[in-house]
């Protein structure tokens, strides 16, 4: 399984559990506790980081109890025919970019209400813009991989 597929599955699992913050809360009291940066890195194919299997298993069990649906990540690890295609990865990256950009847009709009962007406001907005740019690179890479 390539890094893009790991990132796609991690993102899908995290989203099925309610997003990164929900996953962090779910794992908080377990031996599989993860940091926010690591959790976000697992969503990025270029980061080279994957979710620890203990965290994957625990989150999948939580997701299965909550929704009754089958696992997301571990079945794909066990079966190569369930891996996402590059086109699915491109779509996922584009959706993720759009969602992060919506957060950035809200922050920019709110910070610009006084027609001045303070250094603190810029520092708050910048990580979101960097994530959007990373997702856009991911979209391009996935689309190029299908050619």
Provide mean pLDDT, rounded: 87
The radius of gyration over CA amounts to 17 Å
Classify the oligomer: single chain
Could you tell me the number of beta strands?
0
Number of domains: 2
Distance between the termini: 19 Å
SSE arrangement, N to C: HHHHHHH
Shape: globular
Q: Beta-sheet strand percentage?
A: under 5%
Structural class: mainly alpha
- Major β-sheet, in short? none
Residues in helices, as a percent range: over 70%
- Count of DSSP-assigned helices: 7
- Indicate the low-confidence ranges by residue numbers: none
Describe the structure.
Helix 1 (about 5-15) runs parallel beside helix 4 (about 55-65). Helices cover about 70% and strands about 0% of the residues. The chain is mainly α. It has helices spanning about 5-15, 20-25, 35-40, 55-65, 75-80, 85-110, 120-145.
Tell me the layout of helices and strands.
Elements (H helix, E strand, L loop, with lengths): L2 H14 L3 H8 L8 H7 L10 H15 L5 H6 L7 H26 L7 H27 L2
Helix pairs in contact: 1-4, 6-7
Summarize the structure.
The chain is mainly α and 147 residues long. 70% of the residues lie in helices and 0% in strands.
């Amino acid at each position: 399984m390539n890094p893009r597929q790991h990132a796609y599955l991690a993102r899908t699992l995290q989203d099925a559990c309610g997003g990164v913050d929900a996953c962090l809360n779910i794992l908080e009291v377990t031996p599989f506790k993860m940091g926010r940066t690591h959790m976000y890195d697992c969503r990025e194919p270029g980061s080279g980081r994957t979710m620890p299997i203990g965290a994957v298993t625990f989150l999948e069990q939580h997701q299965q109890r909550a929704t009754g649906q089958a696992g997301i990540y571990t079945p794909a690890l066990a079966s190569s025919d369930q891996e996402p295609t590059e086109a699915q990865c491109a779509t996922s990256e584009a959706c993720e970019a759009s969602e992060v950009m919506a957060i950035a847009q809200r922050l920019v709009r709110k910070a610009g209400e006084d027609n001045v962007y303070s250094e603190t406001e810029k520092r708050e907005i910048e990580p979101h813009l960097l994530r959007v740019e990373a997702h856009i690179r991911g979209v391009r890479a996935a689309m190029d991989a299908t050619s």
